[in-house]
């Protein structure tokens, strides 16, 4: 068997992978980027990877290849693709993963479940990220705003490999943490992500959409579904960067939800990333979003615990209609969904 390469394999070199990988490379770690976009790969190999934006600007030499050109065996693979590409990417990277290596999902959604199904749970590490970044052009990624970075085993243990990964990621985010409840963070992110999908039904910025008062009863229903389902599964969802799942739990007072919305607006106002990646997929890149991979599990797990996630399902359906061009991005969508499901004070 071939020797294990201690290079960090970053699978997906867009917003998340490009940003984290560039920081790790600048810190002196050996990093190899894998991306299916040939122009991006060629640009990185020719001129390096450039990080731009308000946090800092720098460039690093970058070794990169397309998935079919990868070789070797690696102990650490950071999976950074869009959530809907998780299974295909996991199948592609599996032959290059060392027997005792791991894949860590620096993605949106509950992708650890799908990764573990392909490479095995013992080779899957849980991770959660919430920083702001965008792929701009071949070889160029914008790092827009700092946010939470969390790692942990999916069963709650803090193992030596989790400690090592945590130490590695502090090179990118000094406030990164190792947690015994990474699944709680992931369920918190599902609830927050559902809110971002709701904001993308409008053509407004994240701050404008979350600051609006009229749709807040709908927002509370959406976030409340994710919170209630997580609790029913025996998972305590955790908050981050202003989002507080407890503020949307059954029976939580209006004041708690309003405080959470104000905190989310304040956090997002600090970022140069004014609109979500979901909005960018719909309005700029004209491509499918991660809706099925992020909202789908909320609806599906809801069924298993007897909770009908009607608000989340409504957002999912409307996002698909925008993707296919039969519905515009407009504030009227929130009013329509609110009326349909009876979301009001």
3D architecture notes:
This protein is of the alpha/beta class. The protein folds into two domains: 4-180, 3-Layer(aba) Sandwich (Rossmann fold), CATH 3.40.50.720; 184-341, N-(1-d-carboxylethyl)-l-norvaline Dehydrogenase, domain 2, CATH 1.10.1040.10. It has 14 helices and twelve strands. The strands form two sheets. Strands 5-2-1-6-7-8-11-12 form an eight-stranded mixed β-sheet, sandwiched between helices. Strands 4-3-10-9 form a four-stranded mixed β-sheet. β6, α3 (86-93) and β7 (97-105) form a beta-alpha-beta unit. α13 (310-323) runs antiparallel to α14. The radius of gyration is 20 Å and the shape is globular.
Instruction: Quickly name the level 1 CATH class of the largest domain.
Output: Alpha Beta
Please summarize the sheet with the most strands. 8 strands, mixed
Number of helices: 14
Report the mean per-residue pLDDT as an integer: 95
What shape does the CA trace take?
globular
Assign the CATH superfamily of the largest domain: NAD(P)-binding Rossmann-like Domain
From the helix content, strand content and strand pairing, which structural class follows?
A: alpha/beta
Helix content: 40-55%
The CATH architecture of the largest domain is 3-Layer(aba) Sandwich
Distance between the termini: 64 Å
Q: Identify the strand order in the major beta sheet.
A: 5-2-1-6-7-8-11-12
- Number of distinct beta strands: 12
Percent in strands: 15-25%
The succession of helices and strands, N to C, reads: EHEHEEEEHEHEEEEHEHHHHHHHHH
> Residue ranges: pLDDT <50 for 5 or more in a row?
none
Q: What is the domain tally? A: 2
